[in-house]
Protein 1
Amino acid sequence: MLAVSQSVDRCTPPAGVDPAPKSVRVRRMGRGETLFHAGEPRRLYRVERGALCHYLRWDDGHHEVIEFAFPGDIIGLGHLDVHTSTAQAVAKTIVSPVSEEEFEQLLETDGQLAARFRAAADREFDFLRMRALATAGKLPAAGRVRKGMQAELADHLSICTRHQAIKPFRRFSEAFAPLLGGGKG
């Protein structure tokens, strides 16, 4: 995360991006209100005021904090079509949506955001691997082999993404879905 003094510059969309009217863009949240849950369609947000706690909720009920997002931070990062984590306001918070176009431009100029985006991909690979392993025992033999291959592939790609730029996982998922058992990850 950037220090608050540095993050103010990131609150402004990049040149050439036409922001929507403020009345459409802003969402006001009370303390404890959830911005998104795991499983909901992915959307990107910029924290304008306040703070969010971004965390994973495990099957056994415990929470693992990923990060706290402060003014200027982008939250909701990832490559899958749905969130695999949850974000909740820890104070009165205002967020605004970030378009894909704006996000792509920010990625080109903000190395810290790019690193957080890669970390989100790592978390998603771990999520897919854990899900594949959890369901493998409930499948017939062919299904267990396919799920095992998915887990191994996700694990391998997770290691690769830590050392090089990654392409959006969505494209990978769509390209290999027929080979790995059908639907999107």
Protein 2
Amino acid sequence: MGRTDSNDDRSGRDDSGPTQPPGAAVHQMTPAALRHIAGVDALPRLLNAPELAESMKRHYPAALRGQGTAGSVRVDVSIDEQGQVSDITVLPAPTLQAHGLVGWRLDADSPLEAATPASTAQFGDAAKAALGTARFSPAQLDGKPVPFTLRMTVRFSDPDASGTT
């Protein structure tokens, strides 16, 4: 029969929006909370996701292609009032200070995946080059576009990996 997933309901309607992992809570932030936390009424939204995905493939480090190397890097992306990227700053990899987590490790399957110093060194320039092609809707404050800086983790996977394990 037809495709069934967590977004289907009994009416046959398929809400093709983003899906949440099983058991994940969906939280709506109130406008007041957003203003309190981020200082804006509306956050920037990525407008050209397909182009950015292609740019990330193009800018994947040439020396790592075909090796199956994945990596991530944290960046601050400054977005101007027109939604254009005005600056990209690669951030140092965070240090993990775990108290009482004996024998615990951070790896690619961890929900707490973070940028590492090796990833930052290998993928920092690639992230800057790829994100230079990103286009956003501007952040809004009182109905007017305002500059905003997004902090994000950019994750790269090898576009030339064979796909076999």
Protein 3
Amino acid sequence: MFSKPKSDEPTTGKTTATPNVAPTKPATSTPTPPPKPKPAPSILSSDLTIKGNVTTTGDVQVEGTIEGDVRAHLLTVGESAVVKGEVIADDVVVNGRVVGRLRGLKVRLTATARVEGDIIHKTIAIESGAHFEGTVQRQDDPLSTKAPKSGA
């Protein structure tokens, strides 16, 4: 009832589309490229020690030691990691040790965190068990390097 006619059978006057012809696209439209996938974070392993500054626009996961400043989009300090220097990132998650100033829009100190230094943040979360020595200051723009306004 719904079978296709074979090529050597005569057709009954109906027109059929040729299967080998590709549909034409308008010449004015340009194809949009697919969205770029988010790159994987850079992982600094536990046997790595960096003496110097680390700067990236991406994500960094530190498991080793950094003696210098770190600037990133998302910085995760692992449980065995040590960062000695200033940290500036949109999001900071500290599971290990940081000695120096932390600047971040969102700062999170987990139960295993050890921080010695000042924290300048927009939002902060400190889990029970985290060790922190320093001052905490909330700013609307903690990533700016300008000195905070004095009250005088």
